[in-house]
Amino acid sequence: MRPGHVAGPCALPARGGICRRAFRPLPCAGQLLERSVKDPGRTAAWLGCAIAVAYAVFVAFPGLDIAVSGLFFRPGEGFWLARIHFLDVLRNLFWNASVLLVAVAVLLLPLTFVLPAPVRQLRGWAVYTILLYALSTGLLVNGILKSFWGRARPADVEAFGGQAMFTPPFEIADQCQWNCSFVSGEASAVMALALSVDALLAPRLGREGRRALRVVLGVLVALGSGLRIVTGRHFLSDVVFGILLTWLVAAFLSAFRAPARSGRGATL
After folding, report:
1. CATH number for the segment(s) 26-254
2. What is the pLDDT of residues 62-81, one digit of tens each?
3. Cα distance between residue 250 and residue 39, in whole Å
């Protein structure tokens, strides 16, 4: 088996046919995170296929978004989970964690040029984190998609008592003027958070430690993204594409990062 090859049920074919395995169960995400560093080009290809397959699913089943959001809607009450204060606190916790992480990366970056080696080794991570948030959550998600796609949020569409028309993902519409539904900025942010934390900690852990870390990060991504669905702020497709597009940006950025050595952070 060649170095960097991922074995087992998550294995990607060596030549062609990547799209045949576009979707795998959650445990495979950890192996794909590892491949993001070892083979970012193939990861980008996998993610491109995953985005295409996800798009095909939502086109083939146009009622899927409404059906999933409808699970959390009660006639006369609306999206009742949105009124639970604890969920709002949890949502803010995820968002503030991203803000804090970016702030740490921004403050750390200049210090890597003047402080000793242990800090210098974090320069690549700081650059990666800043660029990941800037290009994915900042530019692609909030700067382009949410600003110009015009998709109304679940709570605002006719199916759930609103006035706006439901529109499918990737269809440019005029049902929302600003801060629109497609894609989820907070799903993108929590995915960027997970990818950044993984880039920082995974090189310092053994196999079992990395596996445990990625299970925890996967749960956090699912929880942070799921909050946006259950409170009527985003459709399932908003969350799915927010996560996948952010991961795709991370895969491209990983192509410019040198593989991290054991016990050391990744460098550019």
Report:
1. 1.20.144
2. 999 999 999 999 999 999 99
3. 12
